[in-house]
Amino acid sequence: MALRLLSHYSVSTFSNVYVIACERSRQAAIIDPARFEAPLLEFIETNGFALTHVLITRSDESHEQGVRTLKRIYDAQIHAGIPEIAGSETAGAPEGTTISLGDREITTIGLPSHSQDARAYLCGHLLFCGPVISAGGIAPGHPGYSGVLLREMIHERLLSLPSETVVLPREGPPTTIGLERRTNPELSTTGDGRSADDDTPAADAPTDHE
């Protein structure tokens, strides 16, 4: 069944908030709700979706404030790498956990070289990776050996996904795994110096933009 995707740019936090929804079951999940703003509520309510999951890619107070607002409206389960977000208990997000969204499955990918609570969520060909990868870059603040470990982890856990996988970062425009393999200067080689080039054409995501 079709999967709907809304990408909303929050001007108050300069970050992306995403909603994905299974059209058959009408269940929806929101990713990194920095703010729960009117376009997000309108998308959910106008389409008759039920918000059942909140996915947090990394604990960061400035990118989770919308949780407090949406929890007043929806009884959604929170998935995160820490036990509490914005005063609400989470269901956790262990590596490899599968979250059901109607007839779709969301797989949790742990990203410990970024931070112990960092997670990515894979739903079909859509990868929600938080701050770990952006178009043409990776998460800042990892100098020296920690940067080597971060790049190795990205190669092993994310760049190993199919080239057509659409990367939906917390900051910046969408990209694809294949495009980042070919053009991201931060990821041009693996930890042992091997080339990460890939000649598979990039693919676009069907997206509702706000």
Q: How does this structure look, described?
A:
The structure is a single chain. The chain is α/β, with parallel strands linked by helices and 210 residues long. The protein has a single domain, classed as Metallo-beta-lactamase, Chain A (4-Layer Sandwich). The chain has helices at 38-46, 66-71, 144-157, 177-183, and strands spanning 3-10, 15-22, 27-31, 50-55, 77-79, 84-85, 88-89, 98-101, 104-110, 119-123, 126-130, 133-134, 137-138, 166-169, 175-176, 208-209. The relative contact order is 0.15.
* Principal-axis shape: globular
Query: What portion of residues belong to β-strands?
Result: 25-35%
Largest sheet: 6 strands, mixed
What count of structural domains? Answer: 1
CATH superfamily: Ribonuclease Z/Hydroxyacylglutathione hydrolase-like
The termini sit apart by: 23 Å
Give me the CATH architecture, please. Answer: 4-Layer Sandwich
Low-pLDDT residue spans: 190-196, 198-206
> If you average the pLDDT, what whole number results?
87
SSE pattern, N- to C-terminal: EEEHEHEEEEEEEEEHEEHE
Placed side by side, the strands forming the largest sheet appear as: 5-4-3-2-1-16
Q: Helix coverage percent of residues?
A: 10-25%
**Count the strands?**
16
Over the alpha carbons, how many angstroms does the gyration radius reach?
Answer: 16 Å
CATH topology: Metallo-beta-lactamase, Chain A
Task: Tell me the number of helical segments per DSSP (H or I, 4 or more residues long).
Answer: 4
Top-tier CATH class: Alpha Beta
- Helix/strand class: alpha/beta
